[in-house]
Write a structure and sequence with these properties.
The complex is a heterodimer. By secondary structure, chain A is mainly alpha-helical. In chain A, 70% of the residues lie in helices and 2% in strands. Chain A has two domains: 293 residues, no CATH class; 137 residues, no CATH class. Chain A has a two-stranded antiparallel ribbon. In chain A, a hairpin with a 2-residue loop joins strand 2 and strand 3. Chain B is of the alpha+beta class. Helix content of chain B is 16%, strand content 35%. In chain B, the strands form four sheets. Chain B has a six-stranded antiparallel beta sheet, with no helix packed on it. Chain B has a six-stranded antiparallel beta sheet with strand order 13-12-22-21-18-19, with no helix packed on it. A five-stranded mixed beta sheet of chain B has the order 4-3-5-6-9, with no helix packed on it. The longest helix of chain B is centred in the N-terminal third of the chain and has 33 residues. Classes of the chains: A mainly alpha, B alpha+beta. At the A-B interface, helix 1, strand 1, helix 3, helix 5 and helix 16 of A face helix 1, strand 2, strand 3, strand 4 and strand 5 of B.
């Protein structure tokens, strides 16, 4: 009788056992004084970073015309100054941790070095985008400090994102087979890159929204409109990235594998339908797995074949910046950025960059369990997943494992919008870590002290 | 001579090796620092089921409550929706959200609209399930402390004069049962009640989980007692089962088929 009752009216936490394991022994709980990060550790790392960046920058100068050196050196010095300024503000004054920023600084400086070496004239734009990206990062990290601010701004951001994509579709001209560039004055921006950040921001939601059916319906409509608009722009690479991110977010929101399988099946059918009735789409992928054939090797398989040949010739340590040959291929620093890194900086650096994306995803998944809201958990996991997926699409695309879609490599490819997007996505990874917000940490300890007493 | 020759020949390679190794090493060091987690989870709130005393310690900032297995706190009651409510910790304190549930959420007996702040010691009820919420850091502010709402009596008509007349005639205080889910009252005038689902009972609870004749409330030597009448789901008293006949004292919580009552020994309402 008692057993029957227990079964009927028990109240239990879903993963009690796992939660029990996560209780820290009392001596591991940080004391109040340790909430503030000590700047000393980060100063040492910052000095190492500066030395590495200086070495990277110096290697650029060896193959450069004398007229350019002064200007480029000035810009590199400016970038170093921005980093140190950020370091003083964040680590010394605000006592923040610096891991993610430092990784971002180094990756961006690889991008800047390649840009300076291939297109010294466009270095200023790239530098401005990087500094702007750091600004976007700092703003987003501050903005996401308050859950209420996030809750109220999701709807306007979603509307603005859809508006921006629609505007691009209406105004943009065809450029390399896709309508995804917007020219305003002398500036050219790729709105789909900026919408990526908004897509993650709108997709992630607090738990009370997730349990609400109407909220889910709204989100599905939003993502379908985004992916649809990208399809109309014929920007299939980005559409695929959005769709993959949508799958990640849908899984994180519902926790249901069956739904994901259903969505994938529907998408597959849709894809087949499109290829059957719009042959020019299939035409884009005709060279896939045929790049080495005589008809393609110097024509539409040119980029992939040259990437494979030159990337291998770089060896483990590269041929040095400025000595590569892949740089002469069309769009080498954007669509083939990974190949350029492999050739000129070597396989080891290239591997470090790829491992970086993987580690960011691992960090997001680990931190998600401790996040203070499901918003941060979903945003971080989907942002890191987006980055990794995009990197995979880029690397596999240029090596002909997947069709070449011309997507950029986060942080490494030259391009202002891409750089802004990468830093914006990094902000989600910063926000999921509760150590980013000392106020939140302090609340946690206060609570601990009171419940103990 | 040899050194300069070697440097001329291999200096560039040496620099490139140093550069790639240091980039690799730096990225690794910095990202591994991320994994150096120096914080953990603390219990920041606790839910206690009034029916049987089960407790759930909460260490995350957002908790979902419902009948579905994927909820953080599973309330396996037929009157609870699959995704019933969400309790979140925001800057000022704890908030409860009603996520389109069928039976609604009540805080201290009052139905909430969409969301409401909850404080330490509040009683949250969802359908017939009653949870007591504990989070010692967040006490209910004095200006928000409202006296228990006057609610209509059940089962016995709504006549104050009956109460006072009965009290006079009996010369003893009237006891009462307060339903924890919605704060409604059952006044106990007679000395013997059978609680159950069947219409012939003294106190009728039309809930599927209550047996036809579930339990007996009786006054013996001036003390109220409760006896289980062989019900299917059993009768609970302060979280434990009722075995044989047990005495009731002021404030005891009785659970009958998932419906929770607080026993009030002296009900003064005039």
């Amino acid at each position: 009788m008692a057993n029957a009752k227990k079964e009927k009216y028990n109240i239990y936490a879903n993963d009690t056992r796992r939660r029990k394991k996560n209780y820290l022994p009392p001596d591991l709980v940080i004391k109040r004084g340790e909430i503030r990060e000590k700047a000393g550790k980060w100063l040492l790392l910052m000095l190492a970073l500066t030395v590495i960046e200086a070495a990277l920058d110096l290697s650029v100068f060896s193959g450069m015309e004398d007229g350019q050196v002064g200007k480029v050196a000035l810009m590199f010095a400016g970038y170093l100054a921005v980093q140190w300024l950020y370091f003083v503000a964040a680590a010394v004054i605000l006592h923040h941790r610096m891991e993610l920023e430092m990784a971002g600084f180094l990756l961006s400086s690889v991008s800047l070095a390649i840009t300076a070496s291939v297109y010294p004239d466009r270095l200023l734009t790239q530098l401005a985008a990087t500094v702007g990206g750091i600004g976007v990062f700092a703003f987003l990290v501050w903005f996401m400090g308050s859950v209420n601010r996030v809750t109220y701004s999701r709807m306007p951001v979603g509307v603005a994102a859809v508006g921006l994509l629609a505007l691009t579709l209406a105004l943009a001209q065809y450029n390399n087979g896709a309508k995804n560039w917007l020219f305003i004055g002398g500036l050219s921006i790729q709105p789909s890159e900026i919408v990526k950040v908004a897509f993650v921001f709108v997709g992630a939601a607090t738990l009370d929204k997730i349990q609400n059916t109407r909220s889910i319906a709204k989100y599905v409509v939003f993502s379908m409109v985004c992916v649809g608009l990208l399809f109309l722009m014929l920007d299939f690479g980005t559409a695929l990235i959005f769709f993959a991110t949508f799958l990640i977010i849908a899984f994180l929101r519902s926790g249901d594998v069956k739904t994901i399988v259903l969505i994938c099946t529907a998408a597959l059918l849709g894809g087949i339908f499109i290829i059957l009735y719009k042959p020019y789409v299939a035409n884009r992928f005709s060279t896939y797995r045929h790049i080495w054939e005589a008809a393609h090797i110097d024509d539409r398989g040119f980029q992939q074949t040259r990437t494979i040949i030159y990337a291998l010739s770089g060896g483990l340590f590269g041929v040095g910046l400025g000595n590569g040959r892949l740089r002469n291929v069309f769009a080498a620093t954007e669509d083939l950025a990974f190949g350029v890194v492999c050739e000129e900086l070597g396989m080891l650096t290239a591997a470090a960059i790829l491992i970086c994306y993987v580690l960011l995803l691992v960090h997001a998944i680990r931190s998600a369990r401790y996040a203070r809201s499901s918003f941060y958990a979903i945003a971080a996991c989907s942002a890191a997943g987006l980055m990794l997926f995009q990197a995979a699409l880029h690397v596999f695309g240029i090596t002909d494992i997947l069709p070449l879609t011309g997507v950029t490599l986060p942080f490494i490819s030259r391009g202002g919008s891409s750089m802004l997007c990468s830093w914006g996505l990094l902000a989600f990874l910063k926000a999921v870590d509760i150590r980013t917000y000392p106020k939140v940490m302090r609340e946690l300890y206060q609570q601990k002290e009171r419940t103990d007493a | 001579m040899i050194v300069t020759d070697l440097l001329a020949a291999y200096g560039g390679l040496l620099l490139r090796i140093l550069l790639s190794v240091s980039i690799f090493g730096f990225l690794f060091t910095v990202l591994l620092l991320l994994f150096n987690r120096n914080y953990g989870k603390n219990v920041i709130a606790r839910f206690i089921n009034a029916a049987n005393g089960d407790t759930v310690d909460v260490s995350s900032w957002e908790v979902s409550i419902g009948r579905a297995k994927t909820c953080d706190i599973v309330l396996n009651y037929p009157t609870v929706s699959r995704f019933h409510a969400v309790v979140v910790r925001r800057g000022k304190g704890w908030l409860i959200f009603d996520t389109n549930s069928k039976t609604g959420v009540r805080v201290n007996g009052e139905k909430i609209d969409r969301s409401a702040f909850i404080y330490d010691g509040d009683i949250i009820s969802m359908g017939t399930a009653v949870l007591s919420f504990r989070s010692p850091l967040f006490k209910r502010p004095a200006e928000l402390q409202t006296p228990a709402k006057q609610v209509p009596y059940r089962n016995i008509g709504d006549d104050r004069r009956v109460v006072s007349a009965a009290r006079k005639s009996a010369g003893a205080p009237i006891s009462a049962l307060r339903n924890l889910a919605d704060n409604s009252l059952i006044l106990l005038f007679a000395d013997d009640y059978v609680i159950g689902r069947s219409p012939g009972c003294g106190i009728v609870l039309p809930v599927m989980t209550v047996s036809r004749r579930h339990a007996r409330l009786a006054k013996q030597n001036g003390m109220w007692t409760i006896t289980d009448l062989g019900s299917r789901s059993g009768t609970g008293l302060n979280g434990g089962p009722v075995k044989g006949t047990m005495h009731l004292r002021d404030g005891y919580v009785i659970e009958i088929g998932g419906v929770c009552f607080r026993f009030i020994a002296r009900y003064m309402n005039d």
